[in-house]
Specification:
The chain is an alpha/beta fold. The chain has a single domain, classed as P-loop containing nucleotide triphosphate hydrolases (Rossmann fold). Helices cover 37% and strands 19% of the residues. The chain has 7 helices and 9 strands. The strands form 2 sheets. The chain has a 5-stranded parallel sheet with strand order 2-7-1-8-9, sandwiched between helices. The chain has a 4-stranded mixed sheet with strand order 4-3-6-5, with helices on one face. Strand 5 and strand 6 form a beta hairpin. The chain starts with a strand and ends in a 12-residue tail after the last helix.
Length: 190
């Protein structure tokens, strides 16, 4: 399983969406009560947007393997059980660095990639979302700490400081190299 991490505004969703579109990755989406952003008006590969009531219903039914709230914001995220497929796409989840240890307890065979960017570009990217001042401040508050935590656990770190095409190509090449698809190699990378 490939785990993509990185703080808000680093570009991980954009890279993942590109690689899903190209058939390189298959994302196991989280369910979230977070409002959609402008670029998510028609949905997104990495999230399923649900109301608080729907989230509560799914949680009561035991649908989620794990749930969290992040940044002191009122939104919740739930990860359903993972079901892998053998169609050649690399099974992928998107997490935050502090959650990887919880994930690793359930899925020990995983590789972690961090996507990050320079602070000034992150601020500009987050501000362009128009999510409100509170959301922006909450996401920036622990940005540096999250970058450092991610670097300690990531197998590879990708700096999003060039073109999307180059970044997507680098992530795809690394994933094809690092993620074993043959049954005898599964679980070799930890």
């Amino acid at each position: 399983m490939l785990v993509i991490i990185g703080p808000s505004g680093g570009g991980k969703s954009t890279v993942v969406r590109t690689l899903v579109r190209d058939g390189v990755l298959r994302v196991h989406p989280t369910y979230t009560t977070r409002p959609r952003r402008a670029d998510e008006a028609h949905g997104s590969a990495e999230h399923r947007f649900v109301s608080e009531r729907q989230f509560d219903h799914l949680a009561r039914r035991g649908f989620f393997a794990d749930t969290v709230s992040l940044f002191g914001l009122p939104y919740r995220y739930g990860l359903p059980p993972l079901r892998t497929a053998a169609d050649g796409a690399i099974d992928t989840v998107m997490l935050r660095a502090p959650l990887v240890a919880r994930f690793a307890a359930a899925v020990p065979a995983h590789v972690v990639y961090q996507i990050e960017d320079r602070p000034e570009r992150v601020v500009a990217r987050l501000a362009s979302r128009n999510s409100g001042h509170h959301d922006l401040e909450a996401r920036l508050h622990d940005n540096r700490r999250e970058v450092e935590a991610g670097r300690r656990i990531a197998h590879r770190v990708f700096l999003n400081d060039g073109s999307l095409t180059a970044l997507a190509a680098a992530v795809a090449a690394a994933a094809r190299s690092d993620i074993a698809t043959a049954p005898e190699r599964r679980g070799a990378l930890r």
